[in-house]
Amino acid sequence: MKAKIFIAAFLLAASCGEADMNAPFGNKTPPEKVTLRDVKNMPGAAVIFYDRPADVNLKYVRAVYTVDGEQRVTNASYYTDSILVEGFSDTTEQWVNLYSVSYGDAASEPVPVAIHPRKPSYLHVIDMMQIEETYGGIRITSTNELGAPIAYGVCKWEETDSVTHDSGWVEKSMIYSKAVNFSYALRKQKPVEAKFAVFTKDRWGRRSSLKEATVTPWEEYQCDPKTFAWYETSFDTPGNHTYSGSHHGTPALWDDQVGKSGSYGYHSPPASTFPQMITIDLGKKYTLSRIVLHGRFIFTGSRTDILDFPKTGIGGGNVTDYRYIFKDGYPKNLEIWGRGDGAPNRNNKDLSAQFTKIGDFSLPRADGSFVPSTVSAQNNVGDLSSDDIDLIVQGQEFQIPGTFSDPVRYIVINVLETYGSNTSGPVMIDQLSFFGAEVR
C-alpha cells in the first residue's frame, strides 16, 4: 500500500514539470469591486473605509499608491472594511487605487480614491515640541497622535574645536519612541545658559528641521550614596535587612550597582504585608528635586549618561534579565515622606506625626498602562516594548512637587502596591537615586 502511494506521488510530481509550485491557486475570475464609503485623513496617512462586495471569490483588498516616486502596495484582509495607507511626506492630494483580489490573485478594475494626508507625524511632533529647563538639564515634551515610531535627536551647541574655536551642534542623545505623550529629560548639564535643539525622524529616514531653545538648566546634584544608611523605625517592614543572607537588604538600594550581573537589589520577605516601608538616612540635608527608581534587571548594554553613581555606568551584565520588571514585586503605587531636623523616634509608630508627605506616585509602563509584563525567563522580553526597556534603563522618576520645598534628611519609601499584589508579597527595587542641592 505504501509503495502505491509513493508511486502515485512520484507520478503527480513528474506531471508538474517546470510549473511554479508557489503560483496562486484558485479562481482566476476578478471579484466585484469594493464600494468606497469614507476616508479619514491622518498625519502622513489615511484610512480608507469601504463596503466589500458579496462575492465568494473575494480573498482580500489591495491598495496601490505612490510615495516620493515609489510605488507601494498594502493589503487588507477579507475580514476588515478598511485599509491604512501611510508614509506620505506632505499634505498634497494623493490618489490610491483599491482592488478586489481573488484566491487566484486576479484583481478587479481599480476604484480610485482621493486622499488628503495631514502633516506627517514627524513634522507634527516637532511643531508641538516644547523645550524647557529642568533640574540638571532640559525636558522635551510633545504629542504623537498616531503613536508613530519617531526618532528624537537631542543636540547642544558646543565649541567642537578649542584651537580653531569652531562651534556646532553636537548630538547628545537619540531616543526612539512611539509614545503618544512623549517626555524625555536630558540630564547632567551645567547650570549655565546654553543652546539646545531637537530634531525628529520618521521610519523612512525623513528628518525635520531643528527646534531650538536657549535655556539655563536648574542646578542639581546627585546625592552621594556613600553617606546613606538604613534608619530602622517601628513602622519599617520587619526583616527587610536579613532576607536571603543579607544579599537583598536595604544597603542594596544604594550600592552603586544598577543592571549588572552582580547586583542583587532590595527584596523584602516574600510574606510581607502591605503597606511596606523603608526609612533612609541620607546622611546630609537636601532640598530634593527628584528621585529615580530602578527596578531589578540586568542588561548587556552600558549607559554612563544617566547617573553620577554608579560611576561604572548602568548595565554591563552578561545576560538580559527582565523577569522582575512590571510584574511580581515591582512597585506600582507608593508614597514618599520626608523629615528634615532631628532624628525621628525609632519607636513611634505614627508616620504622619514625624514625617511630612512629599507626594503620591505611580510607576506605569511606557504606554501608561499597569498591565503586568509576560517576561518568563532570562534573555526573554515577553511583551516589553522598546519604550518599556528604555524606561527601566533610564529609571522611573518621581519629580518632587513644587508645593514641597522643605529640606529633608530622612526619607520614608512607603510601597502601597506592587504589580504582583496589594495585600502581601515582596517588594523588589534595584536602586534609589536622590537628586537636589545640599543644604549647608
Task: Write up what this structure looks like.
With 440 residues, this protein is mainly beta. It has three domains: 35-115, Sandwich (Immunoglobulin-like); 121-215, Immunoglobulin-like, CATH 2.60.40.10; 221-438, Jelly Rolls (Sandwich), CATH 2.60.120.260. The chain has helices at residues 2-16, 121-127, 351-354, 386-394; strands at residues 35-42, 45-51, 58-67, 70-77, 82-86, 94-102, 111-115, 130-134, 137-143, 150-161, 166-177, 181-186, 194-201, 211-215, 221-222, 229-230, 266-267, 276-294, 302-303, 314-315, 331-339, 356-362, 396-399, 408-418, 428-429, 431-438. The strands form seven sheets. Strands 15, 16, 18, 21, 22, 23, 24 and 26 form an eight-stranded antiparallel β-sheet that branches. Strands 4-3-6-7 form a four-stranded antiparallel β-sheet, with no helix packed on it. The longest helix has 15 residues, at 2-16. The chain is globular, with a radius of gyration of 29 Å. The protein starts with a helix and ends with a strand. The relative contact order is 0.12.
